[in-house]
Amino acid sequence: MSDFYRRFEGANAPRDFDGVEVWAPEFSGDIDIVIDAGGRWFHEGEKIKRKSLIELFAKLLRKEADGAYYLVTPVEKWRIQVHEHPLQIESVSRNAVAGGFDIEAYANDGKTYPLSIAYPLEFEAGLSGAFVHLPRGLTAKLSRNAWYHLCEWVEHEEDRVTLTSHATSFSYHV
Question: Of 89, 113, 121, 136, which has the fewest beta carbons less than 10 angstroms from its beta carbon?
């Protein structure tokens, strides 16, 4: 187990992440953390099973202009491998509001994202799935379960499907 990983195991793990967007440490190297296409996190080939550790690492994660993903602290910057999207929307819920519906997306980083102008939904080519745009250049792919729920809620028109949430419409032309 690497020293970087060990630092986040105990009670001494950092909890304040204000500034992760602007921290600018020198590149520390590559670390053997991989996020596979299913949104599962692995360290040195072993699946990270502790949800709290994934949530912690997600708070340190950002995508940079070079297209790579990094775990960043004020003094370290480690590149990791991401096969598709770094996070996953595990479930969604829909609440009726005046004039429509609000949809909340629950991600594996422990946070809830309202599908809205702040967290836009993007349909994948051929309506094979969808993902949500998040801060720091991150995205979260909808799990199969979450995707099927959204498919039940879309409005079908002649040449497109539309999903409206928090007074924001997301469309895909078919």
Answer: 136
Domain boundaries, position 99: 87-173
- What are the backbone dihedrals phi and psi of residue 57, each rounded to the nearest 5 degrees, phi first? -60, -40
Rounded Cα distance between 69 and 148, Å, is 28
**114 and 61 housed in the same domain:** no
Query: For residue 113, what are the contacts with CB-CB under 8 A and spacing of at least 6?
Result: 89, 104, 105, 107, 119, 132, 134, 140
Distance CA 172, CA 124 (A): 9
Return the pLDDT at 11.
45
- The total of other beta-carbon atoms located within 10 Å of residue 94's CB is 17
Share of residues in the chain with pLDDT > 70 (%)? 90
* Tokens encoding 169: 């419409």
> Residues 122-147, buried b or exposed e (16+ Cβ, 10 A)?
ebeeeeebbbbebebebbbbbbeebb
Residue 116's CATH number: 2.30.270.10
pTM above 0.70, yes or no: yes
The token pair at 8 is: 């986040």
Going by C-alpha positions, the residue among 47, 49, 15 that lies closest to residue 33 is: 47
